[in-house]
């Protein structure tokens, strides 16, 4: 495996709208991010992924871009962005932006021009088809946010355009070389600014199954999941290789792909030494309990399922390259609410989950607030929901026969809003996020769970993450922590997740993933306890007596 500059780093995702507001308008912004760079540096972060800050109507919170070359005024200016890149660099931090190029906004000039002249140059930037009222749509695929992927082209009742996401997110036609060149030009423009690279949004969707065709309906709406066509669409790698060649490789840029359900044979092509991405997210744990009927039917992952999914992903990634590990992001519930048993809010359990994930082989990404153990947002009414995905899933749940209260409870567990409530910096009004009224309500627990409180407390979640990151950067251990193989230890012991890292210099990671105590036989004497999320360490006769949710990293 060729060594890369990013391998040993720890990454941190910022959702700018909810991170830090510098001017009191209730919306997080780039100057807010700049003001927190010292905080990130002290935590040990060396890569920051910013969710989109480009100009956007924010129909999907910035994942609908109307101008790739400008910053949305709500987030700041291009001068702020340049300053952020420069200030981050001074602190050894690379800034990674979100690259949303499967689709743009319907307010982008390209789409406006396509509407003005669908037969013209810009009409070919999108997927547009003739269609007449009463006729069948070109195919029966269901969009990610519900409903058919086809909507009438504004101003043209006899035409429809394709959007796999919201109707305000028209898909860009990657079959058109002129469009691809426009995108590469834009990517290089950003890389020239000194950006570290990109997180690449929804990228697997760029290859469509053409000619379009129907698949058997999988719900009463007569539509079928987009997944079916993605399984059949061949050749996404050709586009991805071309993009890497024309852009990222020239700059040795870091890229992390948002890829679900890649085909097994694609992994080396995607994340190998010459891969079209540097890495991609491991979503194996996220996909546990998924149900094709909708969020309302999803089940909560158990510790045993979590362990199995993580170990499978580790084994799969090893020969190919490095995956990126997460417990949450801006599309997911909070990891501690999702992966820990209902009602389990202890700091021991939170640090156990964080530690087990962080110590896996791969690039660790923290999501803002994860480092203090932020939890899901309580919902008492559907009117409190902002996220378009949640609103759709609520309707799906109602149609399946759930009562309003049941539907709300079911979708609230999974809502993307959970991770989007403002960052909890301190216990004062506005949680230190804003001096004004936050655009989205704060989690009422901010008076208890916040950065200021945890910074001052040695046994806090925050200080624990700081120690995890320090271990990854410690020259004595970095080689093993970054490159060592993951070898499961006692994989059949119930609610125990344990693994070795590396072969020669053995590190053993052990987590008692349950509230009850359990005994764990150790394979060799303990030379050093490198990390422990509890004060106690009770080992005798080669047996480690672990209280509930203890997590340790041992040198053997
Ligand atoms: C990705 C983003 C998500 C967005 C979608 C469409 O999954 O993470 O937030 O809604 O793509 O761009
Ligand atoms: Ca602001």
Textual characterization of the structure:
With 556 residues, this protein is of the alpha/beta class. The protein has two domains: 363 residues, Alpha-Beta Barrel (TIM Barrel), CATH 3.20.20; 74 residues, Golgi alpha-mannosidase II (Immunoglobulin-like, Sandwich). It contains 17 helices and 23 strands. Strands 1-2-5-10-12-13-14-15 form an eight-stranded parallel barrel. The chain has a five-stranded antiparallel beta sheet with strand order 16-17-18-23-20. A hairpin with a 2-residue loop joins strand 21 and strand 22. Helix 13 crosses helix 14. The radius of gyration is 24 Å and the shape is globular. Alpha-D-glucopyranose (GLC) binds next to loops.
In the CATH scheme, what's the topology name of the largest domain? TIM Barrel
The top-level CATH class of the largest domain is Alpha Beta
Strand order of the largest sheet: 1-2-5-10-12-13-14-15
- What characteristic shape results from the CA principal axes? globular
Helix fraction, binned, reads 25-40%
Helix/strand class: alpha/beta
Number of helices: 17
* Straight-line N-to-C gap: 26 Å
| Binned strand content | 15-25%
Bound molecules: alpha-D-glucopyranose, calcium ion
Number of domains: 2
Give the rounded overall mean pLDDT.
Answer: 97
Q: Unreliable stretches, pLDDT < 50, 5 or more residues?
A: none
Supply database-style keywords:
binds calcium ion; binds alpha-D-glucopyranose; 556 residues; 2 domains; TIM Barrel; alpha/beta; Immunoglobulin-like; globular
Task: Kindly summarize this structure in a few lines.
This protein has helices at residues 30-35, 37-43, 78-90, 109-116, 177-192, 226-232, 236-246, 248-251, 267-271, 303-317, 335-339, 347-358, 388-399, 404-414, 451-455, 461-473, 478-483, and strands spanning 11-14, 47-50, 54-55, 67-71, 94-99, 128-130, 141-142, 150-153, 156-162, 197-200, 224-225, 254-257, 279-281, 323-325, 363-367, 486-489, 496-501, 507-512, 518-521, 528-532, 538-540, 543-546, 551-555. The chain is an alpha/beta fold and 556 residues long.
């Amino acid at each position: 495996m060729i060594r890369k500059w990013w391998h040993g780093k720890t990454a941190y995702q910022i959702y700018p709208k909810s991170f830090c507001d510098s001017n009191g308008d209730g919306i997080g912004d780039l100057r807010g991010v700049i003001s927190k760079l010292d905080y990130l540096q002290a935590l040990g972060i060396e890569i920051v992924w910013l969710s989109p800050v480009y100009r956007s109507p924010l129909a999907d919170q910035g994942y609908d871009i109307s101008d790739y070359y400008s910053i949305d005024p709500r987030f700041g200016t291009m001068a702020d962005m340049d300053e952020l890149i420069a200030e981050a660099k001074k602190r050894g931090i690379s800034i990674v932006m979100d690259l949303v190029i499967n689709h743009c906004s319907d307010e982008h000039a390209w789409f406006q021009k396509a509407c003005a002249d669908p037969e013209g140059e810009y009409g070919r930037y999108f997927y547009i088809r003739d269609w007449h009222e009463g006729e069948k749509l070109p195919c029966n695929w269901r969009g990610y946010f519900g409903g058919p992927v086809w909507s009438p082209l504004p101003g043209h009742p006899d035409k429809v355009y394709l959007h796999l996401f919201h109707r305000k997110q028209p898909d860009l036609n990657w079959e058109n070389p002129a469009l691809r060149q426009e995108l590469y030009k834009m990517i290089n423009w950003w890389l020239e600014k000194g950006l570290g690279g990109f997180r690449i949004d929804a990228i697997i969707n760029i290859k469509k199954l053409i000619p379009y065709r129907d698949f058997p309906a999988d719900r009463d709406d007569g539509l079928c999941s987009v997944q079916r066509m993605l399984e059949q669409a061949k050749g996404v790698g050709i586009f991805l290789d071309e993009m890497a060649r024309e852009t990222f490789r020239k700059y040795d840029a870091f890229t992390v792909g948002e890829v679900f359900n890649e085909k097994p044979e694609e992994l080396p092509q995607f994340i190998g030494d010459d891969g079209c991405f540097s890495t991609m997210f491991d979503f194996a744990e996220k996909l546990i309990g998924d149900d094709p009927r909708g969020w309302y039917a999803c089940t909560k992952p158990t510790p045993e399922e979590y362990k199995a999914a993580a170990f499978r992903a580790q084994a799969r990634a090893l020969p190919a390259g490095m995956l990126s590990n997460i417990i949450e992001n801006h599309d997911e519930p909070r990891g501690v609410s999702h992966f820990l048993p209902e009602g389990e809010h202890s700091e021991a359990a939170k640090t156990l989950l964080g530690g087990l994930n962080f110590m896996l082989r791969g690039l660790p990404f923290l999501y803002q607030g994860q480092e203090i153990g932020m939890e899901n947002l309580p919902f008492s009414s559907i009117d409190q929901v902002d996220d378009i995905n949640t609103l759709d899933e609520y309707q799906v749940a109602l149609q399946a026969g759930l009562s309003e209260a049941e539907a709300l409870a079911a979708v609230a567990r999974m809502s993307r809003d959970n991770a989007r409530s403002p960052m909890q910096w301190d216990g004062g009004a506005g949680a230190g996020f804003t001096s004004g009224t936050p655009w989205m309500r704060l989690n009422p627990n901010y008076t208890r769970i916040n950065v200021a409180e945890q910074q001052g407390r040695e046994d806090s979640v925050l200080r624990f993450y700081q120690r995890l990151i320090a271990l990854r950067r410690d020259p004595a251990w970095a080689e093993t922590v970054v490159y060592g193989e993951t070898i499961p230890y006692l994989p059949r012991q119930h609610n125990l997740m344990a693994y070795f890292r590396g072969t020669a210099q053995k590190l053993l990671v052990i987590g008692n993933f349950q509230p009850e105590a359990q005994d764990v036989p150790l394979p060799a004497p303990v030379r050093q306890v490198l990390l422990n999320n509890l004060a106690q360490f009770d080992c005798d006769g080669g047996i480690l007596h672990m209280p509930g949710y203890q997590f340790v990293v041992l040198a053997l």
